[in-house]
Backbone:
């Protein structure tokens, strides 16, 4: 009997594991839209420019429509996710993305192209604000870090695939194919999400406890008591009604927002997208001007980004968020100092090129094991349930706003401060980030979402008591 019982328990644990991993992997595809769009525009722009005869301003517009759309999309995401559910928002993101991708592939004019790209941006904003929250709410605590990081893994795979697609279609200059193919992962996301369950935590929030229980029994082991306990804990954490934007000013939520929005901004102002968008340009500064080294630089950045993210996935739930953050941000800062140092003298030559390439790669690897995935993980787990969607949306909006600002100002900074000065500036921000993580980021590994909100409540109480 006992043996049969053990076998049944093992089978139910396996089934639950399969379902939860599948749910996280499908929702994580939301990151593909983000990554693909980030990566493809550099290749496509070269040909759009000549087809439509675009000047610098119009080119900037084509690029900028996505981040601006993403800020808007993230702004809507919070409200929509509370009213209609996290799953619904991801489905909407997939549909809007398909429309945007088709629109930009067939767009006959600059205006249609810009509108379509703004739609893509809105979809990316909706998905990036919501997919991590959805995964975080279905994941069991001991695997949450890894499962939410599927989102970042998809971002990095999206960037790499976009780069390869760009390479494949560049000889024929078919930029419409490059943009149109973005509809493929969006279609996969749509079909996948239609079969996925609602977030059990959202269901409890809207009073659908019975349905929440059904979902939990699909993604947890067959253990009535454990499921009842989880349900009771979710309900207990909801002492207050679903909150509005004003509730973000509540002291415990503010304490969590300092961490979420703080990391959102620091993830960008430490300069990752200067490398993702401008790696070939940075290599060219060292005196190399061959097209093939530019291609190699982007390709290596893409591959290292994916590989190091996989390493992070394996470590995040065992070593913890804080350890990875501290090690990774220290590595990013050191690499930026080395990169700046490579440009200090006037000489260019092989040694400078080698140091610059090695530090670029080390920087990307250090980002990918730390701020890359961990910002998205923390932004999905530090807020209380009644305001989680809105607060995560605020973090996402901050992230996209600073993504936009950094990409826009990088070349201006180079003009003003020189290469060495610019990378030293990012290194100084890296040092500040290290202090910020050490001082303010709590360890959330293995903790239930309901317990994480207690950390911030205690912080707020400690601050208000004399
Ligand atoms: C960041 C993006 C960045 C990407 C690179 C993401 O976590 O939010 O801005 O382009 O990582 O992998």
Residues:
């Amino acid at each position: 009997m006992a043996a049969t019982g053990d076998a049944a328990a093992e089978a139910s644990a396996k089934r639950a594991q399969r379902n939860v991993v599948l749910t996280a992997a499908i929702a994580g595809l939301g990151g593909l839209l983000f990554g693909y769009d980030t990566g493809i525009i550099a290749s496509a722009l070269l040909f759009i420019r000549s087809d439509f005869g675009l000047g610098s301003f119009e080119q900037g517009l084509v690029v900028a429509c996505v981040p601006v759309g993403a800020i808007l999309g993230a702004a809507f995401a919070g409200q929509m996710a509370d009213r209609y559910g996290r799953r619904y928002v991801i489905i909407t993101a997939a549909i809007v993305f398909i429309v945007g991708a088709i629109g930009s592939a067939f767009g006959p004019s600059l205006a249609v192209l810009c509108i379509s790209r703004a739609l893509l941006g809105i979809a990316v904003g909706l998905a990036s604000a919501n997919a991590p929250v959805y995964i975080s709410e279905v994941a069991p605590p001991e695997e949450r870090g890894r499962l939410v990081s599927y989102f970042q893994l998809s971002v990095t795979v999206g960037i790499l695939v976009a780069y390869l697609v760009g390479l494949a279609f560049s000889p024929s200059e078919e930029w419409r194919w490059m943009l149109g193919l973005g509809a493929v992962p969006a279609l996969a996301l749509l079909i996948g999400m239609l079969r996925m369950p609602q977030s059990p935590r959202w269901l409890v929030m809207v009073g659908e406890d019975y349905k929440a229980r059904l979902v939990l029994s699909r993604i947890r082991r067959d253990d009535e008591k454990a499921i009842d306990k989880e349900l009771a804990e979710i309900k207990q954490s909801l002492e207050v009604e679903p909150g509005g934007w004003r509730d973000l000013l509540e002291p415990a939520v503010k304490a969590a927002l300092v961490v979420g929005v703080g990391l959102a901004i620091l993830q960008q102002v430490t300069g990752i997208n200067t490398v993702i968008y401008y790696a070939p340009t940075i290599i060219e500064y060292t005196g190399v001007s061959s097209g093939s080294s530019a291609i190699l630089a982007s390709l290596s950045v893409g591959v290292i980004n994916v590989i190091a993210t996989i390493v992070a996935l394996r470590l995040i739930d065992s070593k913890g968020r804080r350890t990875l953050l501290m090690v990774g941000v220290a590595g990013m800062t050191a690499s930026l100092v080395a990169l700046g140092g490579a440009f200090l003298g006037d000489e260019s030559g092989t040694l400078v090129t080698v140091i610059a390439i090695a530090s670029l790669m080390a920087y990307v690897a250090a980002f990918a094991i730390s701020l890359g995935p961990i910002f998205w993980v923390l932004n999905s787990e530090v807020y209380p349930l009644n305001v989680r969607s809105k607060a995560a949306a605020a973090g996402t909006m901050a992230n996209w706003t600073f993504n936009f600002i950094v990409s826009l100002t990088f070349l201006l900074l180079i003009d003003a401060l020189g290469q060495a000065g610019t990378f030293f500036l990012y290194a100084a921000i890296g040092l500040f980030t290290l202090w910020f993580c050490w001082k303010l980021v709590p360890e959330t590994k293995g903790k239930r979402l309901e317990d994480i909100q207690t950390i911030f409540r205690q912080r707020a109480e400690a601050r208000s008591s004399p």
Residues 38, 152, 155-156, 159, 267, 272-273, 276, 305, 372, 399, 403 surround beta-D-glucopyranose (CB under 6 Å). The mean pLDDT is 91. The radius of gyration is 22 Å. The first helix runs from residue 2 to 28.
